[in-house]
Write a structure and sequence with these properties.
CATH architecture of the largest domain: 2-Layer Sandwich
CATH superfamily of the largest domain: ATPase, nucleotide binding domain
Strand order of the largest sheet: 3-2-1-4-8
Number of domains: 2
Helix content: 25-40%
Order of helices and strands: EEEHEEEEHEHEEEHHHHEHHHEHH
Largest sheet: 5 strands, mixed
Distance between the termini: 13 Å
Strand content: 15-25%
Number of strands: 13
Structural class: alpha/beta
Radius of gyration: 19 Å
Mean pLDDT: 92
Shape: globular
Length: about 325
């Protein structure tokens, strides 16, 4: 098998593309672009092409030594045919990633769910190495998860298992990007926190986070962390509320799946330790006593690269 692959993490906020060593999991070169989903799926696809071309132009390894292109995308995925069936956070529907990229680059293309590929990365090289019974949960623009039993990711009857973000936590609650009401994602994702803070600011609430929102900048995880460090009342309240909801969802997963380990990752988890620690503490208090005593929590250890590293190894896991 060839030693290198290209991995792409196609998320609601960014498109991260990387050349990865299949032997070590090392990222040799990476390209990051903003997704800007409002411009549509065609624009997103062209950004993917531009990113791959930029990477190939570096000529770090010859093109004929690249085994595959792996893509991890949020939403519901047809792995066999390489099609994004529906991704509300990308505003992409029935997008044939495999066909289009293979035509463009003449390299085999493999497609998986974004958290699925991040889980592969963590299982092979990261925080889950050596563990064959765990759940991986990533919190970012949305919330996704993957369930691993006996070293294999459970895909479910339609290949859509692990959509923890669309667990209903409020029957008459907020509308989610998927169109449903009361989804966990609408309460505990970074996007949900951002919307809560923005709504409060529009109503006249004071917050130190306003100092970072110049020149039309959007609220980021790092801004949230800085505001919490300054003991900002509004931001701390919104993050605490999100941790309450996320911990309820995780407690449900622990009670139903009973894994050995929960891995938490994503931009919000990595940047905001208050959110991570509060989520762990409340998850233990809300699940049943027996699994509460044995469950272990770890942060994803590959950081921003977990998705691209896992995507680069999709060929091995999907064949």
């Amino acid at each position: 098998m060839k030693k290198y692959s290209i991995g792409i993490d196609l998320g609601g906020t960014k498109i991260l593309t990387a050349l990865v060593s299949r032997e070590s999991g090392e990222v040799l070169f990476s390209v990051k672009k903003k997704t800007k989903k409002a411009k549509g799926s065609k624009a997103i696809f062209h950004k993917m092409i531009d990113s791959i071309e930029e990477l190939l132009d570096e000529k770090i390894v010859p093109k004929d030594e690249i085994s595959s292109i792996g893509v991890g995308a949020s939403g519901q995925i047809d792995r066999e045919n390489g099609i994004i069936k529906g991704a509300c956070n990308l505003d992409c529907y029935e997008l044939n990633i495999k066909e289009k990229l293979e035509k463009e680059f003449k390299i085999p293309v493999f497609l998986g769910n974004d958290v699925e590929v991040a889980t592969i990365g963590e299982m092979k090289y990261g925080a889950a190495k050596g563990c064959d019974d765990f759940v991986c949960i990533f919190v970012g623009t949305g919330i996704g998860s993957a369930i691993v039993k006996d070293g294999k990711i459970i895909k479910g009857a339609t290949g859509t298992a692990g959509e923890m973000g669309h667990m209903i936590v409020d029957l008459n609650g907020r509308q989610c990007a998927c169109g449903a009401h009361g989804c966990l994602e609408a309460y505990a994702s970074r996007s949900a926190i951002e919307h809560r803070i923005e709504g409060a600011l529009k109503k006249g609430r004071q917050s130190s986070i306003s100092e970072y929102l110049k020149d039309g900048k959007s609220i980021s995880s790092s801004m949230i962390e800085k505001s919490i460090q300054r003991e900002d009342e509004l931001v701390t309240l919104c993050v605490s509320e999100a941790a309450d909801y996320l911990s309820a969802g995780i407690a449900g997963v622990i009670n139903i799946v009973n894994p050995k380990l929960i891995i938490l990752g994503g931009g919000l988890i990595n940047a905001v330790d208050f959110f991570y620690q509060k989520t762990i503490k409340k998850s233990r208090s809300k699940c049943l006593p027996v699994p509460s005593k044995s469950i272990e929590f770890r942060k994803a250890s590959l950081g921003d690269f977990s998705g691209v590293i896992g995507a680069a190894n999709l060929e091995e896991y999907l064949q």
